[in-house]
Design brief:
The structure is a single chain. 44% of the residues lie in helices and 18% in strands. It has six helices and five strands. Strands 2-1-3-4-5 form a five-stranded parallel sheet, sandwiched between helices. Strand 4, helix 5 and strand 5 (107-110) form a beta-alpha-beta unit. The longest helix is centred in the first third of the chain and has 13 residues, at 20-32. It starts with a helix and ends in a 10-residue tail after the last helix.
């Protein structure tokens, strides 16, 4: 087996989205692609899970009740957690997109997105450190 397969089997990808259908379909897709995956309905549920320390990539909805995606991104950064984040949203906003990317997000996908676009973003996240850990002028 090649190294990419081994990485996928070991990498824990977490999905945080309040939409049941999006959460379950994303979880199914990622499992079929060979990833270990868990899904949570809220940022608070994710934080209570204690899984942040072992998360290789976080797929995060922007708009959710309670703590939203940007707030969770800030919270994790405040704790010193350097988890690659892929934002997903049905509500594209260039200003919010730029804020998320400046804060280290790996990608920002507009719903509906293709399966390949998500898988490509995950492969990129697993292959490269978050933006704030790279030497970007």
């Amino acid at each position: 087996m090649n190294a990419e397969i081994k990485t996928r089997e070991q990498a824990l990808v977490l999905v945080v989205d309040d939409d049941d259908l999006m959460r379950s379909s994303t979880r199914r897709l990622l499992r079929s692609a060979g990833f270990r995956v868990e899904a949570f309905a809220s940022a608070e549920e994710f934080l209570r899970s204690g899984r942040a320390a072992e998360t290789a990539c976080l797929i995060l909805d922007l708009r959710m009740p309670g703590m939203n995606g940007l707030q969770l991104q800030r919270h994790l950064a405040g704790e010193g957690r350097r988890i690659p984040i892929i934002f997903i949203t049905a509500h594209e906003n260039q200003e919010i997109r730029m804020e998320a990317m400046r804060a280290g997000a790996v990608d920002f996908l507009q719903k509906p997105f293709s399966e390949e676009a998500l898988l490509k973003a995950i492969r990129n996240a697993l292959a490269h450190p978050p933006a704030h850990e790279r030497n970007i002028p």
